[in-house]
Amino acid sequence: MRARAPLVQCITNFVAMNTAANVLLAAGASPAMLHAAEETLEFTPLAQALSINIGTPSPHWAAGMKAAAGAARAAGLPWVLDPVAVGATSYRQALCGDLLALEPAVIRGNASEILALAGAAARGKGADSADPVEAAEAAARALAQRSWAVVAVTGPVDYVTDGTRAWRVHNGDPMMPKVTALGCSLTALVAAFVAVEAADRAEATVAALACFGLAGEIAARGASGPGSFAVALIDALHAMTPEALDLGARVEPS
Amino acid sequence: MRARAPLVQCITNFVAMNTAANVLLAAGASPAMLHAAEETLEFTPLAQALSINIGTPSPHWAAGMKAAAGAARAAGLPWVLDPVAVGATSYRQALCGDLLALEPAVIRGNASEILALAGAAARGKGADSADPVEAAEAAARALAQRSWAVVAVTGPVDYVTDGTRAWRVHNGDPMMPKVTALGCSLTALVAAFVAVEAADRAEATVAALACFGLAGEIAARGASGPGSFAVALIDALHAMTPEALDLGARVEPS
Amino acid sequence: MRARAPLVQCITNFVAMNTAANVLLAAGASPAMLHAAEETLEFTPLAQALSINIGTPSPHWAAGMKAAAGAARAAGLPWVLDPVAVGATSYRQALCGDLLALEPAVIRGNASEILALAGAAARGKGADSADPVEAAEAAARALAQRSWAVVAVTGPVDYVTDGTRAWRVHNGDPMMPKVTALGCSLTALVAAFVAVEAADRAEATVAALACFGLAGEIAARGASGPGSFAVALIDALHAMTPEALDLGARVEPS
């Protein structure tokens, strides 16, 4: 990652913009946060991966997301979809339907979001999940098979599947959902991992989740609350080495 | 608050978006930061309260604010107005006029903003107040009586009135105005308190102001400047208990 | 700076909004982050300086930038241009062409951006420079002579020129490019310095760069990574005194 410093375009929400860029920088990637349809057709093909998070959508941004995803598909560039609160409004459902048709390489969401995206009943309110990860595993497999995307359901224990293989990632810390935009930033990190490990997008996704969760475990050691935890998480990502990740990753095939 | 975890929709400015979400999470609420008219009519009735801050307005956002406030009023949902720099431009004055007609439950601003909103002469420049809190007390009472809203004027000592009763809140720290978006985040916190203590919106507002100010006092103890202060404030909000708030609140009827 | 507390209007990107406001507050300035064409004609003449950063452009924001720059020029107000990733898309090139015609007092960018703005070949990808500062010195001088603006090329060693005189600023720390939005925030700080030291805009620019770089050096002493570094940088800016700046500035005429 640090040797390649992949250029990752992020179209994300207003809440996550700064945190996602800092997460990418700390991990060794080069973030590019542009979003407008007016310039993305020209820019996206220059990137190594694209991350799209629909957190604070509006018509102009939705147009930019679709233009960027289309440009990525045309250029053979992997892109990652984060369907924030997709079950909350029909506007989000329609937008995600359009984006799914543009063939994301990876989809990352919480259990309620993956359930809603797969067309199942979900109970999420706002951006928080009201469903446990296990409840979304079958939906994740079905969605992966239908969309040809790797699907990651994140929560206390993450579940990743490409429709055939599956993994559970046990890394993470209970403080993580107490800091806003960490899920959104993880999506951007998945895009960076997929950019440098394109041969196996499922394994790249698993590695990104383990890396982020392990950084959270390290950050929690010295933190006194979500404020100091968020600061320490960036420090821990920056200090992460491949050796530390190999030692600390807690991944099991499922 | 933590037991109820109220869903609070925030339409706030680009500067405050991340901080306001983290303040709500640290306090135990569940933030939802969506703003577009295209989806807010469907979403707002699902929330327990709404917070609107006009800090970085534009036509599309203004339309979303009015749609959300209208949906909140129709659903009987309390909403809080933060009229940032309302005296600075006629665009903001017109927007706040439209929003006032949609009956906010609480209005929170600095002295210059409350003076301007009440139609009095104000001297604020940008988002900072140039008037002392005391100079806005009569305007706050008049505005509360005219609008049926609780009005909170924040500054070194805060003043809260529902037009009949009034309180002064002495909590806070001089470092707070040195960190951007803390006033905006306080507005979101007021919405969260009003969501869980709907029976008396004035007392809920007073409690939110005391809680935020007390967290500031605690944060200041170990901080070496506004950077570390902002981090410690989130930690202090997260660690706050009802008992600590009862002990530390410095509120007097006025 | 602290005695004058200049009102600095910032039209910046979504990533930098919060950080830039906190940098201005820590340095003693008063930030105003409004951007819409609908209100900027009325507001800009009230400010003491204007900072425009094109980082996340779109048509509505571009219109606001041009309106604000035009209002600043009409009012004799100095304004600073940050041409983020101008070489990346023709949309950014056209926008910067329009903005250059509105006569910025200072232009600050990395080497790739200044090369692209001056019409030379640049190799930057996204917002990061792929060219060394030295490679952009001749382009900076030519751009300064053509535009009558002070041009600052920032990097490991900064280069500042007004087309006749030139300086190198050696302050800074290798951690600075690992935190997003620091360049954008520096542009806002340059605007604040130019507001209070209008007599010599080149010297004001040099002072802003030295101040920010020195704060970075101080922050690096206790930081364990880019997260804690960003927090400490705000603390260090807030603690900076004119005496400390005089002692720590490492500036040489070129």
Query: Which secondary-structure class do the elements of chain A indicate?
Result: alpha/beta
End-to-end separation of chain A in angstroms reads 27 Å
Helix content of chain A: 40-55%
Number of strands of chain A: 9
Strand content of chain A: 5-15%
Query: Looking at CATH, which topology of chain A would you report?
Result: UDP-N-acetylmuramoyl-L-alanine:D-glutamate ligase
Q: What is the global morphology of chain A?
A: globular
Q: What is the CATH superfamily classification of chain A?
A: Ribokinase
Strand order of the largest sheet of chain A: 2-1-3-4-5-6-7-8-9
Main β sheet profile of chain A: 9 strands, mixed
CATH architecture of chain A: 3-Layer(aba) Sandwich
CATH class of chain A: Alpha Beta
Please, how many helices of chain A?
10
Task: Please state the CA-atom Rg of chain A, rounded to the nearest Å.
Answer: 16 Å
Mean pLDDT of chain A: 96
Total individual domains of chain A: 1
Descriptive notes:
The structure is a homotrimer of 254-residue chains. Chain A has 254 residues and is of the alpha/beta class. Chain A has one domain (7-253): 3-Layer(aba) Sandwich (UDP-N-acetylmuramoyl-L-alanine:D-glutamate ligase), CATH 3.40.1190. Chain A contains 10 helices and 9 strands. Chain A has helices at 17-27, 37-43, 59-75, 90-100, 111-117, 137-147, 182-196, 201-222, 226-239, 242-248; strands at residues 7-11, 30-32, 49-53, 79-82, 106-109, 150-153, 158-161, 166-169, 251-253. In chain A, strands 2-1-3-4-5-6-7-8-9 form a 9-stranded mixed β-sheet, sandwiched between helices. In chain A, α2 runs parallel beside α3. Chain A is globular. Chains in contact: A-B, A-C, B-C. Chains A and C meet through α1, β2, α2 and α9 of A and α1, α4 and α9 of C. Chains A, B, C: InterPro entries: Hyethyz_kinase (IPR000417), Ribokinase-like (IPR029056).
